[in-house]
Amino acid sequence: MEHIVIIGNGISGITAARHIRKNSDKQITVISAESDYFFSRTALMYVYMGHMKWDHLKPYEDWFWEKNRIALKNAIVSKVSPENNLLTFSDGETMSYDILIIASGSSYNKFGWPGQDLLGVQGMVTKQDLELLEENTKTCKKAVIVGGGLIGSELAEMLSTRNIPVTFLVRESSFWNGVLPEGESEIINKHIKEHHIDLRLNSSLREILSDENGRARAVIIEETGEEIACDLVGLTAGVSPNISFLKDSGINLGRGVKVNRSLQTNFENIFAIGDCAEQHEAIDERRPIEAVWYTGRMMGEVVAQTICGNPMEYKPGHWFNSAKFFDIEYQTYGWVFAKPREGEAHFHWQHTDAKKCITINYAENNGKFIGINTFGIRMRHEVFDKWLTEERSVEFVIAHLKQANFDPEFYDTYENEIKKAFQNHQPVAQ
Amino acid sequence: MSLTGDTSNSLNSSQKLASFLGLAGLFILVLSNFNLNFPHRSLWLLFSLSAIGIGIIWFAQATYSNKTEGIKNDGVWFKSISARGLLAWITALSLTGFYIVLYFYPQFLGLNAEGENTGIVAFFDPLSRLLSGNPASQWFVYGTLYTIAIFSFGIKFIWKYRHNRYERLRTFSVMFFQLGFAFLIPEFMQRLNTENFSLPYYDLKNIWPLNYYNFEQYRVDDFISAGDIGIAMLIFGVISIFVITPILTYKFGKRWYCSWVCGCGGLAETAGDSFRHLSDKSQSAWEIERWVVHSVVVFVVLMTTAVIYSYLREDGKYWLNRNTFLIGVAVLLTAVFALVMIFKKNEFKKDAKFGAVGYLAIILSLIGFHYFSGNGNVFLFEAEKLRVFYGFLIGAIFSGVIGTGFYPIFGSRVWCRFGCPMAAILGFQQRLFSRFRITTNGGQCISCGNCSTYCEMGIDVRAYAQKGENIVRSSCVGCGICSAVCPRGVLKLENDTMDGRINANEILLGNDVNLMDLLNQKQN
User: Fold this and answer.
1) B500 conformational bin, left if phi > 0, alpha if psi -120 to 50, beta if neither
2) Is residue B49 domain-shared with residue B187, that is, in the same domain?
3) What are the tens digits of pLDDT across the range B30-45?
4) CATH topology of domain A121-237
5) Tell me, what's the ipTM?
6) Backbone angles phi, psi at A198, to 5 degrees
7) Residue B225: its pLDDT value, please?
8) Is residue B388 located within the same domain as residue B482?
9) Which residues of B touch A312 (CB under 8 A)?
10) Radius of gyration (Cα) for chain B, nearest Å?
11) Chain B 245-304, CB below 8 Å of chain A: which residues?
């Protein structure tokens, strides 16, 4: 029987395992040193905030794996030897495979800042990071977070629920404005400050200072030279693939594990999926490395088909995503860029409470709908997916926006207001 | 702001004062039960009840008013009261003790059927006389406290979910039905009673089989002897379950009752809100739930059938006699069963089918026995004994002592989930003949588990959402909290067409269109 070995029990690896089991009788082993059982990484924050307990993070009960004959192994892979299809674990033990799926995920970036390895300096990606954060915040009086993105905002929210004052260093001139259009970024700036977070824009990290015990005691801001005392430094400036264990394996590596459209590496029986996989060329407007929950899941779905004799390329459909910044939910369907590109224009509507807004990106010449961002209003994935496929116009989308509304029943609706704003709208060209 | 990291457990000073006020009110009630001689009893009663209500509302204000609108479940699993800590156990044991006294030893509360009440029941006499003109009973004490709980914790709930109009409206609704239908109207109805006109105590929204005693002989006699009003109420009781309920459940799902109208649901949603996350989400709990709750349905149907049968005549002056009644029950059950088997065979899972066949056989055979046993005997039991047993086991122990007493340990909907026959019947219909569902938003789910954690009915919502599948479950009471706590806008409660309501797909929206077509069609 073919032995499929999967390195990593995150959403990508586990989805692959589940779908291979659905479609075949192959022997499956999933290896992880992070946790015994699959858990939802996106929900780590809720354990720290006391919304959930660790067990709630597990989407499947513990008996599920044995029942579905998916063997789980808690170990660290230190070496992969493709020439003889062998894994070596950190304790020297080995395991052979017929097909290997690398789904090793990613960890937080350290950009060579002085002091980045001090005690009290950490990221927030893994189960171990969560445990370390509990430890580090037992006596924490003040925290500094470096890097403005989703994880940074989540870490700020986590710490604020424990009444720890947070200074949030964001390199950009406005929160996440490399991704979000100005009006949206502005809403998040305000909302973060509303939660008593000391948000510092245009501020990057110069160095982290140590006390006599090798523990972080302060950071220095590059732009101003200001020293901010703190006993916790959160590093949340993005993530990078976990590939150090593959260094001398002969598997082609870039920033991640290089894969073709079938998610195959330069070895026929080795695949890579999820955060650690890097496409040779980016697909559509997507990035070569997609560190997103659902793309990991989709790659797992695809690779399982290929392995079970139904060769498939990874062809993701229309881009979508979502996030939550403190109390404000964000959803996106299709493409909306921070600034409209050549030949594109934005229509932006904002509610007077400055907590809800939408931005629609469309083609200037023919009005083709390209994408929508929404804050504080839920939208229907299915409807936007359909409209994008049908290449609807921005006028059509505005006229039928009601169909796409996904807010709970009895909520105020803003379609009419949005319609009116659109009629008065002057295209914001680039 | 404290200087240490973990302060989520500690109360702020307003919360402390509010707790003190509420407990002071409660303490006065306890004192009254020791027959402390309060001068100006009505004033003390007013003070005590206000202190409890205001204490709760003040606490809510101190908890939520300084926070931004949104989901604030911070520290839920750190607090002793909401994480099965010492406070939770103390509360559970006190509540359980209270229920045991209430149901089985009302004399310890001062109830005196022969003469003047004493204790806490006497303490409530002034209010009872004001409303109905009669002295209080232990049930009046309970009803008053119950109403205050729904009201003040309802305000707390509204504060907590002030950004969510569905939750606000739903809570106004349960507060209205509790205050009006469960509390005031029945009390005022007592005022209409004279020596030769007497209506039974009737909470009109309390529908059989939840109201398992509604068709007992003494009540039916009362209804009939009260003339047109009484007959109208009796007919209302019958059409409530056989006409109104099916129509509303078809249109809106069982939520129209369980989380908008029902008193048990009302308490669970308000006072019980702090415990909703304690429900058991395991598959084994679901298995137990289905067996237990459906057994209660069988039990209540048998018991009610037997009770009505026992007071009907062999031939009698009405068309409704023992024979026509039994035939009616058998025809009704068979018709329901046949309809399901004809139209919904596929949606009826294998084990449910076995269960249904088994239960139907039992019911029909018992009715068969009935023909042979006669004299009010069902099989081996006397109808009355069956009723008393049901009242003790289900009405008192299950719904009260365990159902509410153990809120802080098992969560707020134990009774609704495992025991309520009304919920089971509505759920059966919701699963098979209703437009209600919780729609899952394409591929947006990130499996975080907030929905499952905060589902008071113990439904593993995430299991469906992460497959992109709509949630169509008989137990769902439509409280809407899964949708509220979802950080990614994945869930929406809605009423839509029956087509495509259940949408099991192998691959979620967002992946390769060809792959989705290939796999999702293969399945259908």
Assistant:
1) left
2) yes
3) 988 887 777 888 899 9
4) FAD/NAD(P)-binding domain (3.50.50)
5) 0.95
6) -80, 90
7) 84
8) no
9) 512, 515
10) 25
11) 282-283
